[in-house]
Known about the structure:
Elements: E1 7-10, E2 28-30, E3 50-55, E4 63-68, E5 78-82, H1 89-95, H2 98-105, E6 108-112, H3 123-135, E7 155-160, H4 161-173, E8 178-184, H5 191-196, E9 221-225, H6 230-242, E10 250-252, E11 255-259, E12 276-281, H7 289-303, E13 306-308, E14 318-320, H8 324-327, E15 330-336, E16 339-346, H9 349-356, E17 361-367, H10 374-381, H11 383-390, E18 393-397, E19 400-401, E20 406-407, H12 415-430, E21 433-442, H13 445-455, H14 457-460, E22 465-469, E23 485-490, H15 502-514, E24 526-530, E25 533-539, E26 545-552, H16 561-571, E27 574-576, E28 582-584
Parallel strand pairs: 2-3, 5-6, 5-7, 7-8, 8-9, 9-12, 17-18, 17-21, 21-22, 22-23, 23-26
Antiparallel strand pairs: 1-15, 3-4, 4-6, 10-11, 11-12, 13-14, 15-16, 16-18, 19-20, 24-25, 25-26, 27-28
Amino acid sequence: MSVLLATAVLTPGIAHAGPPAQPEPPEVRTLETTVPAYDPMRGIRMGVSGLFERTVAGTGGRTAKIYASKDAYLGSYIVVLNTPEGEETVSWLAKSGWIERADKEKLVLYVLEPGASGEWGTAAEEQSYIETAYTNIGANGVDGRGDWYQPSESYYVVGYDTAGSVLQKLVMDDPILVAAAAFVDASDIDTQYLASMNSNFYPTPDWNGDLVASADVPVPVWIINSRQSQASDDVIDYWKDANQTSSKGTGFEGGKIFEQKPNMLYGYVAETSRVAVGVLEKKNIRENEPKERQLDKKIYDFLSSYTRYGGNVGGNTIGSRQDLDELGVTYQTMVVDGRLREYLVYVPHKAKVAAARGKDVPLVFSLHGSGMTMYMMFDYSRWWEVADREGFILVHPTSTNNGRATSWATAPTSSDHTFFGLLLDELKTNYNVDESRVYIGGQSNGAAMSQAVGRNLALSQNFTAVGATSFPSTSTNYDGETLPYYMAMGEFDFWPYQPSTPPVGGMISYWINRNDALGTPTTAASEEMSGRFVTSKWNNEDGVNVVRYTVTKGRGHSIIPEEMELIWDWYELWQKDAEGNNVYVGP
């Protein structure tokens, strides 16, 4: 028996207040000996919280510190830092405000620190430790996140002093891992290394088939120096080139910021966003504790303006990160089969105006992938921008915490199916939902779940069309109403994208049969190319396109905002008639 409880409270946003009194440093525990405690009534919260030390394998016993705030959830944003020269890690984390900031913003901190002497060595001496510790942040097992924490798809990085210069070189080497970065007196990088990034190519090409060098990939960066030097000038120029900024900067936090030129960096930066390079050169910028604390706060404010989906270089998008409170997103919960279930609801202005006029609007479900959360899907997909323009209600639900990650359970008997039934009832009761236009889709494991919902005939009748990305699944039971289906797959996804291959071909075959379309997976009615998208279509005997499949050039196992536009264009073609049939209403 499932019990339904619904609440509506504001989601913690990313606005910031002035720092209160400095907290006491927390106790340090050993991460590997900690037993995670997963409370089913705490939803997607992590199983550990507090300050931990972990031995970094392969570094001669060197350690790193990890801080998980008590409300951090699986997939929380992670800030990678190194302890500044002359500081002790734990006391510095407290006095700098980073622990307090992590608590407020539900962050995870991953802190690289000096060896047993308490002093950093030269850049050459620290290269191996820093590279090893940085590389295994997201690795499974005791040398990585294991059962203890799970980072988001990309990191925020903050480097200080000489060790920070090594950290900055790692960001340059693989920029798609980083949403934004800041470096304080950490730009002592020789021109030979900078030049080498022009021939450091990613293994897969972009959407045009061209190889991509590390130096061509943008990262929002703030370079902060106590003094000007030729090395730091060269680093600033490097990032200006990577971010294709204007040559004229504007005032920013006592320095300047150089913004991306308009209509540049297609495929790397969301159309409505801009990357930038900040520059601040000021003597004695860290001369006392209050000043340094204030600087670190400003650094996080800069970083948290951005978000980025990881993946491969041709399917990797930086975008502006929204304050959910300011946008009007609500965090809501219900209890299903003894577990807290969580979801975000966004009702844009147009939908509210429609409600005031007594008019109903479409409802779109967008499901995250395995290891992701509703927060990550909200930020990465940018569905909220489509909702703003088109006026539909957007819902991002979260799956269950399986102990070390999140995942949807697609089996017909799983509580996720119960959750969707209850959630549908709740949304239809509380919002001005047009029940003839309810759509569902998701990324990866979320795509698998949306297809599972489509095959659940008790649930599928509530939905008008499916639009998903990056996960083919199938069945040989073709029962059910016509449910228009669209899938977008990356050219370099986990599975071969060709319809002749078993995973994709099986998926297409199921929907051809389910929707009474003509042809086979390899005999589409048409194939069209538009920009980086190659789309195949299968029609029914009336010539209506009921199955659609797109290959996104250059993309791996990720999503790009343009695909949300394509999916919405698909949804708009379909509506339920008076008898509850899904019918084509498009041009």
